[in-house]
Specification:
single chain, 21% helix, 21% strand
């Protein structure tokens, strides 16, 4: 038979264990509001925003369209450098756009490397010889002077693409990259300088294993002279308008 405590049993038990004798009432019970845990809202979903295509010069747009149509890059990632705009556009092997970034280029205006310039010391290279050559280059990562890891564009002429150099403070290379116009982006001996984050996180990630293709647009030489096969674009891309009859 169950034993029921007497009316004063709770008071006696409380006193025995040293607690205040507080009568049990509805007020002392936790309310439904305090007992119920607050619902934790899930974090808002982050929408995936597609990378916008940059506004490109007509020659850069033609070259990029031809590469995609002709599959000139094969199965390799590629990048296109527009010297007049001092900009670089990066693409995966399937032609999808990764991103665009400003670049620093050779201080000399021209589309060819001077003969033997790759064998000269830097101090012996005159300003007119410090050009970034135009053309199509099969490029891979390798080591340069000082064990620096660079993307070799034209190994024979010592033209490479690498992270921006900050050792010579007077050259203000980082500030030149961040300036709103390409007017001050000519400062190097011919190499292409890129912001460190874009170079490591994007170019390094795509070109790091097997390399890729680098296309550099001319600034003095006629475009069709450097890239003559781009003339075939109307015949490769059905959406493009055909040549005038």
């Amino acid at each position: 038979m169950p034993v029921r405590p007497r009316r004063g049993g709770l008071v006696m038990v409380a006193a025995a264990i040293g607690l205040a004798a507080v009568p049990l009432s509805a007020a002392s019970l936790p309310s439904a509001k305090t007992a119920k845990r607050k619902a934790v809202k899930p974090p808002p979903a982050v929408a995936t925003v597609p990378v916008p295509e940059p506004v490109r010069s007509p020659d850069a747009a033609r070259l990029i369209a031809w590469i995609a149509s002709a599959r000139d890059n094969g199965k390799r990632p590629y990048l296109v450098i527009d010297k007049q705009a001092a900009s670089l556009s990066l693409f995966r092997a399937d032609g999808s756009f990764v991103g665009e970034t400003p670049v620093l280029l050779g201080i000399g205006v021209g589309d060819d490397s001077s003969p033997g310039v790759g064998a000269k010391k830097l101090e012996d290279i005159g300003p007119a010889e410090r050009t970034t050559p135009a053309g199509r280059f099969v490029s891979k990562f390798g080591r340069a002077f000082g064990n620096q890891r660079v993307l070799w564009v034209d190994y024979a002429n010592s033209v490479a693409l690498h992270a921006v150099i900050t050792t010579h403070k007077k050259e203000r290379r980082v500030a030149r990259l961040l300036s709103p116009t390409p007017d001050d982006n000519r400062i190097s001996f011919g190499c292409i300088n890129v912001g460190a984050r874009f170079y490591t996180g994007k170019i390094g990630a795509l070109f790091g294993k097997a390399g890729g293709i680098v296309y550099i647009l001319p600034e003095r030489t006629p475009f069709d002279t450097v890239f003559p096969r781009v003339r075939l674009l109307p015949y490769l891309n059905p959406a493009a308008p055909g040549p005038a009859s």
